[in-house]
Design a protein that fits this description.
Elements lengths: L4 H30 L9 H8 L4 H8 L5 E6 L14 H11 L3 E7 L5 H4 L8 H16 L6 E5 L5 H11 L5 E3 L11 H12 L5 H11 L11 H11 L15 H16 L10 H4 L2 H14 L4 H12 L6 H10 L14 H6 L2 H11 L8 E2 L2 E2 L6 E5 L5 E5 L23 E6 L2 E6 L9 E9 L2 H9 L7 E5 L4 H4 L8 H9 L4 E5 L12 E6 L16 E5 L4 E4 L3 H6 L20 H6 L14
Parallel strand pairs: 1-2, 1-3, 3-4, 11-12, 12-13, 13-14
Antiparallel strand pairs: 5-6, 7-8, 9-10, 10-14, 11-15, 15-16
Helix pairs in contact: 1-15, 4-11, 6-7, 7-14, 8-9, 8-20, 10-13
Cofactor: [4Fe-4S] cluster
Function: Catalyzes the dehydration of 6-phospho-D-gluconate to 2-dehydro-3-deoxy-6-phospho-D-gluconate.
Keywords: 4Fe-4S, Carbohydrate metabolism, Gluconate utilization, Iron, Iron-sulfur, Lyase, Metal-binding
């Protein structure tokens, strides 16, 4: 089925807008491809260093250019549950590569920080920029120019976007992303949220809060709510960089290991030495990014991807905008209810049909491009199949059940949860922002109230504890943008604002910072651009100004006389405390050179 007119129109305008950059990018990739297997350009001394620690068999194989050599980029560390399973992957990949007639080497490691650890802490100010560090670190690993394809081991918030930026930069070779999967289900997410709110109100102590948190985050794998980490996994499948059906298989299972072996075999099949050469530059095209954005909306995914998708696309010479995302959201129905948009976790979502069901439904309605190249082969229909283990513990694909396993979790296109997606672009005299509406009840999507202004999230907590926010209020937390302090997430404010909302007050958040991928029931206008540190309109707000946030019409306005508002001098803030400590001093060059949030908030792509 051909895509709907609205999808085609957005795709065409992205292609036209991107043409100058994309042509330069593809020309660069094609010239690199034409150079042939890249170990052929290495000197004997270069190759000796590449193979010095290898077995005799691997040395002989790598020295030849007719056998593929896979470069592994890993985000392994054993502090973070999502990345701990990757400890054993390199050896599995090496053995699988030898069995398939090739070799594999760990080309390098990249950092992987956890926003769950740094929420509300100074380290969160390094979080967004870690994406660009990851891209740089992966680039260092692959710069040895000894690899015919790459396998990327990464899962969480900034890791996958950073790895995609690297994969696009090294787009002359194939790229396969291999996930670790979600941890098995623990304490239900709604119960965890309830205990957090009880703690915010002082009804339970830290012991009960810690008990609930440890029952929620209790084993290897990603957190089970549908935050940024799991949105990343969806995105890699929708964009054709995962093996079909691999996103939400739990760690430590036979199917999980079979996927790692299958991905390794495929990574060798699609090198330039094989018959199905599939460089990453051919996978990451305009259609792939449109498919990813549609997936983001249909699943109610993380607001963080609004930033990341822009930066990821730019690395591939493609220019996408928040307006593109908003227009796609307007025609993409919401088909999933996974926490924080619903009560189910990703394991229940996967069991109910998951991504293969959703992709089949979206393709049937013409809401996705089927005619794309993927690492599994041409065409997206192969991603509607379901993986099964045969008697040899190898993966085979079968037709999936065409019906939802639970329509409280995932629904067909004929019966969506709502007619539009979960993200809306907000525009008005305060600038541009985004709001995740999929988790916000319809009656709470329009808020008009006086604002209370803060320059630090800790001050919000102090005001809450003093009872100063017991009223209709829009909390404005400014000087939280990428130039000010690295654009930290402000997820730790959610329990307090949720308490106020539960008391019947009309409450919202407006900020030039970020919210977590687990953004919930409180309406939040985030990523506001221009930011306060750039003298954006948010810097001219004063306590008591009435703000109207309308998530239905897509507007964000301060209801102050235009002439008076324009005459105000933007306030400034003392940001010296954000420049030092917990490594923040190392990132000053990032803060000074970062692009605006609407351009991806990256120091790597600044016009």
């Amino acid at each position: 089925m051909s895509v709907r007119t609205e999808i085609a129109q957005v795709t065409d305008r992205i292609r036209e807008r991107s043409k100058p950059l994309r042509e330069v990018y593809l020309d660069r990739m094609n010239r690199a491809i034409d150079n042939g297997p890249h170990r052929s350009v290495l000197s004997c001394g270069n190759l000796a260093h590449v193979t010095a620690a290898c077995s005799t068999h691997d040395k002989d194989s790598i020295a030849k250019t007719d056998a593929g050599n896979i470069g592994i980029i890993t985000a392994y560390n054993d502090m973070l549950s999502a990345h701990q399973p990757f400890e054993t992957y390199p050896e599995v990949i090496r053995q699988a590569a030898r069995a398939a007639g090739g070799t594999a080497q760990v080309a390098g490691g990249v950092p992987a920080m956890c926003d769950g650890v740094t929420q509300g802490q100074p380290g969160m100010e390094l979080s967004l920029f870690s994406r660009d560090v990851i891209a740089l670190a992966a680039g260092v690993g692959l710069s040895h120019n000894a690899f015919d394809s790459a396998i990327y081991l990464g899962v969480c918030d900034k890791i996958v976007p950073g790895l995609v930026i690297a994969a696009a930069t090294f787009g002359h070779i194939p790229a396969i992303f291999v996930p670790a999967g979600p941890m098995v289900s623990g304490l239900p997410n709604d119960e965890k949220a309830r205990v957090r709110q009880q703690y915010a109100k002082g009804e339970v102590g830290r012991d009960k809060l810690l008990e609930a948190e440890m029952k929620s985050y209790h084993g290897p794998g990603t957190c089970t709510f549908y935050g940024t980490a799991n949105t990343n996994q969806m995105l890699m499948e929708f964009m054709g960089l995962h093996m079909p059906g691999s996103s939400f298989v739990n760690p430590g299972t036979p199917l999980r290991e079979a996927f790692t072996k299958l991905a390794t075999k495929r990574a060798l099949e699609i090198t330039a030495q094989g018959n199905e050469f599939t460089p990453c530059s051919a996978v990451l095209d305009e259609k792939a990014f449109v498919n990813g954005m549609v997936g983001l909306h249909a699943t109610g995914g993380s607001t963080n991807l609004v930033l990341h998708l822009v930066a990821m696309a730019r690395a591939a010479g493609i220019v996408i905008t928040w307006e593109d995302m908003s227009d796609l959201s307007a025609v993409t129905p919401s088909l999933a209810k996974v926490y924080p948009n619903g009560l189910a976790d990703v394991n229940q979502f996967h069991a109910a049909g998951g991504l293969s069901f959703m992709m089949r439904e979206l393709l049937s309605a013409g809401l996705m491009h089927e005619d794309v190249r993927t690492i599994a082969g041409d065409g997206l229909n192969r991603y509607t199949k379901e993986p099964r283990l045969n008697e040899h513990d190898e993966i085979e694909y079968v037709d999936a059940d065409p019906t939802s396993g639970n329509e409280m979790i995932v629904r067909p296109i004929s019966n969506p949860f709502q007619a539009t997606g979960g993200l809306t672009l907000l525009r008005g005299n305060l600038g541009d922002a985004v709001i995740k509406t999929s988790a916000v009840k319809p009656e709470r999507r329009v808020i008009e109230a006086p604002c209370r202004i803060f320059h630090d999230q800790g001050d919000v907590k102090t005001a809450f504890q003093a009872g100063e926010l017991e009223r209709d209020v829009i909390c404005v937390v400014r000087f939280q943008g990428p130039k000010a302090n690295g654009m930290p997430e402000l997820h730790s404010l959610t329990p307090m604002l949720g308490v106020l909302q539960d008391k019947g007050f009309k409450v919202a958040l407006v900020t030039d910072g970020r919210m977590s991928g687990a953004s919930g029931k409180v309406p939040a206008a985030i990523h506001l651009s221009p930011e306060a540190a750039d003298a954006g309109p948010i810097a001219r707000l004063r306590d008591g100004d009435v703000i109207r946030l309308d998530g239905e019409t897509g507007t964000l306005e301060v209801l102050v006389d235009a002439a008076e508002f324009a005459s105000r001098e933007p306030v400034t803030a003392d940001l010296s405390a954000n420049k030092f400590g917990i490594g923040r001093e190392l990132f000053e060059v990032f803060r000074q050179n970062v692009s605006a949030p609407a351009l991806g908030a990256s120091p790597l792509f600044v016009d």
